[in-house]
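Quick one: co-fold with zinc ion.
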Amino acid sequence: MNGSITQQVRELISYHRRNWELVRTNYAALDRVQSRKLMVNGYEVELQFNPERIRSSAAKIDKASLAARPCFLCEANRPGNQQWIDFGDEYQIIVNPYPIFPKHLTIPIRAHQEQCIRGRYADMLALAEALDEFIVFYNGPKCGASAPDHMHFQAGSKGFLPLEVNWLQAAKEEVKVKGQAVLYALRDFLQPAFVIVSEKREDAVALFDHLYELMDCKMGEYEPMMNVLSWKEDGKWITCIYPRKNLHPSCYYAEGEANILISPATVEMAGVFVTPLEKDFRKVTADDLRQILRETCLPEKEMDLLISKSKLYSL
Ligand SMILES: [Zn+2]
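Sure, here it is.
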């Protein structure tokens, strides 16, 4: 295939919509998907009733379960009809057959290596620049990735996530400056979050690496828990970083009426809460979502500590 990446991606999606039943069915179902809007802390968010996402929301990611299944991101295990677009030497852009976005891509690396953003944030910005109709995002290995054993980004259509509008309304505290890039903390937002705004890739990378090094890593884990999104608009990269505390909220494990099957990943952090089960789609309230964010994101006190450390330490 020739042309810009954007053009190639458009062709890839329409090719699979014509030639791959699974993609045709699931993208057609998405056109009719039920959703409803809720206000949380004064910000609009959305619930999406999406039964096909049960695979991801209920995915078992313990070591034994991962070892027992063929990795669906390894080229050898992908369906034979699945095409891809090469991005650089390492990445392959494929269509996600279980979409949340009107256009939803998965971007694995060729090798079967664990999910880890360290050293790859610059790649994420390069993808955000090339995929100019998309927001590129990263689920940490314990923050929503259903293949934490295989490094991958995802990308979804711009104009879909409430975050794109919501972050502009939030109060911003300037935390660190590097060249033309600024690291902000969002205040009185849906949840504690950082934003990096930069015209220059290297400056954004310096700020991201700085924050990454300051974030705590849980015992036995190799990466601080986080969800990250990047997109480019008006010549600037915008990156939103959500430090996480837990993978699942307590309602995920609750029995009976109290149970809600929402497994927060980057998409939920950015304001679209996917409910694979209809009972949850009907009953979930703004209070439930507030509680889910409180239990899975970094507590305010720890956020304040992180901000203080960032101000204290030089780059
Ligand atoms: Zn793999």
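If it helps, The chain is about 35% helix and 25% strand.
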